Amino acid sequence: MKIYIADTGVFINRKGRDRQLVTVPSVIDETKAKYTSMEMLIALETGAKIEQPDPVFREKIVDKAEGTGDIEELSGTDIDVLAKALEYGKNAVLMTDDYAVQNVASMLGIKIEPISQSRIKDKIIWGKKCTGCMKRFDNGEECPICGSPLKKIRKRKI
Ligand SMILES: [Zn+2]
């Protein structure tokens, strides 16, 4: 049976009512903070499950996202839903429109279904480039050579 892991956008866009949705507590908090809880209540009444993310899988997501450079773009909620999708493995389809989440998911072989936007076509490795001397680095906030701020760039596509 397919399990659809839902990020906040699923509930906002009223998607997945006919599916077995699983989400994480932080998604519920985000939805409540931004919108009335009415949609959320309806989703729960239709059988969406709320499960805590496993810290072991969370750790794996953080490791992977640090490797791809997506970590700065990921919120705690993003990491939670990715961890939940990884835990369900091949039975999981992660419903999200977030590009950084999609990027990390595709690196880990997690199936993705966009909610409203189209899915990403390429996997992207992010790097950093100095705004002063233009040297490239894997990470960091400040250039170790000239001290200028580094900006995020696409290093390569896979
Ligand atoms: Zn520099």
TrEMBL record:
Q: Any idea where the PIN domain is?
A: 2-103
| InterPro entries per UniProt | NOB1 (IPR039907), PIN-like_dom_sf (IPR029060), PIN_dom (IPR002716), Ribonuclease_PIN (IPR033411)
The leader peptide range reads none
> Which GO cellular component term is one of those annotated?
preribosome, small subunit precursor
Query: Which GO BP terms sit in this record?
Result: maturation of SSU-rRNA
Q: Which domain of life is it from?
A: Archaea
Q: Which UniProt keywords apply?
A: Hydrolase, Metal-binding, Nuclease
Return the Pfam families for the record: PIN_6
Q: Which CDD domains match?
A: PIN_Nob1-like (cd09876)
One GO molecular function term of this record is: hydrolase activity
Q: Please give the name of this protein.
A: Nucleotide binding protein PINc
Organism name: Methanohalophilus mahii (strain ATCC 35705 / DSM 5219 / SLP)
Q: What is the lineage of its organism?
A: Archaea, Methanobacteriati, Methanobacteriota, Stenosarchaea group, Methanomicrobia
